[in-house]
Amino acid sequence: MAESTDDLLEPFLPEENGDLPDASKSFKTRSRDPTRITNVVSDSDVSTSVAAPVGGNIGNTRAYLAVAVMVYINLLNYMDRFTIAGVLIDIQSFYSISNSDAGLLQTSFILSYMVLAPLFGYLGDRYNRKFLMAAGILFWSGTTLAGSFIPKEHFWLFLMMRAMVGIGEASYSTIAPTIIADMFTKDRRTTMLTFFYFATPVGSGLGFIVGTNVAKLLGAWQWALRVTPVLGVVAVVLILLFVPNPPRGEADGGNHRLTNTSFLTDIKQLCRNGSFMLDTAGFTCVSFVTGALALWAPSFFAYAMTDGHKPTDKMQADIALIFGGITCAAGVIGTVAGAEWGKRWKKSNPAADPIVCAIGMLGCMPFLYFALLLARTNIIVTYVLVLLGEIFLCLNWTLVADIVLYVVIPTRRSTAEAVQIVICHLLGDAGSPYLIGIVSDAIASGHDNYLIKYQSLKYALLINTFVCVIGGAFFLACAFFIVGDRARADRITRGEESEHSDLGNNLILPVDPLDSYLHQTETLMDENTRT
What is the dihedral of CA 133, 139, 140, 146, to 10 degrees? Predict the structure, then answer.
């Protein structure tokens, strides 16, 4: 059975390297000079086979099945998160709320999601992860369903229910990637993460489509919130039956050497990790842009096509279908292209991952800018520009997660995921929908005409173009640290270096960062040539 599964996935998986070098060869050029990190480890310099999942008694079939279950749940995660955007205009009419109040729906969700993430990160590094995920999903499904029954006089209660949904989702998002990391390694891990992060844009797109069309079919927006809870109960059963809790770090050969440290020590070490901090800063900008666009883009396009009156239900449904389809298509293309580009480029440039992320952010900016300007002039051209912009934006989804997993030791990965969630949501999509709503309301100055709402929302959304440039700069800075930080995490995992040796080197720029980066790259190329 395992062989047939491997055959099925053969086109998507990296080729086995039958002539892998002895791991000791990778470390024979160790240097004491903190500005010369010469013991670089490449994907090919690992004695453990990169093509087979490991983890105690977990076989190939069960590992692949576990990934499939987690992909399904991640789809539900993002479907639930963005269903609100597909019916936002109806929710505003039902509760009689302004744009700034509507922005709070996403902000309240993200705030609770962000606040609880560190708790689940701490628990995920120490306790059974499958039970933590199952409990969180059951809680999020229940609060989503309860929110659909809140009457129009109690918007504050509906807001509270949306906030509580974030508590459940925090349990899953911080833990699931670490389970994948403990079943697969190197290129195979990147491939599995690519499948997992398909769900981010695809689930978001399905949220727009399913939410709007279910509401239209059944005659009330509340029904849009009653789809994912049913599917969430199915997800709980699938987790309990098919998802394992593999030993932490076993895929990297380090589960017998690593022990947990205190939460404060974990935070201190993560803050010293330059690659992790800059990767997180870049992803914060990604989160800011995606959060703002996810909530406001459907409404913006509806306003662009109106004659000054409220968009009809049919218009909203059509726009949600188109925008959801664009998001799904861009997600598939961008996620695959980014992961494959990074994987291939890393063979010649070990800092390829953050550079691809930077290209994605900088490339998104001009397409987003012209899409906002041309929305009322030519909607077809606008949709094409949005598609291209989202493809660039989606280049980084897999790579950002992969960077965290290979520059952080296995016993700290759930905490690292949680810290990244807190930072990127606190400074990213927790505030961006609300900020866009406030700026839009301020520009509209209380006018109810939908053409004025279109203009005000357009100028507010232009903020995202500046954020794209800032995000690209963070990812480019990350490229100076990525090689050394990855090598150090690998050595610590394998027990070849103490975590407390040379503390502080990671976050201090070398005397000549470009020279140090080039030296690290040359070392990697030399080692690859010898092997």
Answer: 170
Contact 257, 494 (CB under 8 A): yes
Q: Give me 173's structure tokens.
A: 């998002």
Spatial distance between the Cα atoms of 39 and 51, rounded to a whole number of angstroms: 24
The span from the CA of 254 to the CA of 103, in Å, is 45
Which residues make Cβ contacts (< 8 Å) with residue 102, sequence separation at least 6? Answer: 88, 91, 92, 295, 437
Q: Would you say 41 and 492 are in contact if contact means Cβ atoms under 8 Å apart?
A: no
Query: Which of these, 180, 181, 192, lies nearest to 408 by C-alpha position?
Result: 181
Nearest to 106 by CA among 209, 174, 207: 207
Q: 263-268 long-range contacts, Cβ below 8 Å, gap at least 24?
A: 263/122, 263/415, 266/125, 266/412, 266/415, 267/415, 267/419
Q: Whole-prediction pTM value?
A: 0.67
C-beta of residue 209 within 8 angstroms of C-beta of residue 329: no
Distance CA 346, CA 486 (A): 13
DSSP line for 31-98: -S-TT-------TTS-SS-SSS--STT--HHHHHHHHHHHHHHHHHHHHHHHHHHHTHHHHHHHHT--
Copy the structure tokens of residue 327: 């998001």
How far apart, in whole angstroms, are the C-alpha atoms of residue 395 and residue 78?
18
Q: What is the pLDDT of residues 377-386, one digit of tens each?
A: 888 899 999 9
Q: How far is C-alpha 160 from the geometric centre of its chain's CA atoms?
A: 25
Q: Give tens-digit pLDDT for 118-133.
A: 888 888 888 888 888 8
| DSSP, res 244 | -
